[in-house]
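User: I'll paste a sequence; please echo it back and then give the predicted structure.

Assistant: Echoing your sequence first, then the prediction.
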Amino acid sequence: MIESWQGADTVILIDAVHSGAEPGTIHRVDAHAQPIAKKFFRFSTHAFGLAEAVELARALGRLPPRLIVYGVEGRTFEAGVGLSPEVAAAVQDVVEMVLGEVG
């Protein structure tokens, strides 16, 4: 991720999160205002998750000037296809919020 945002002024990342909030809840984090809570992104299928990548970039001084993370609270994190109804309902709200960020 760090290499892909090199030279960008604004980066917006979107991922599923698990914080205990209601499924479909949208969390917004400005990476310059606060650290990314690793516990939110603990169900990554990647060896190195979103929170670790952002915090590594912070430690290396390689955060883009503006980095916003949207996390949508998932309902289930089992292998499968498709989105839960709660997450599917949140998608349009996330799209509108991201458009507001870049508009």
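DSSP finds two helices and three strands in the chain. The domain at 10-102 is CATH 3.40.50.1450 (Rossmann fold).
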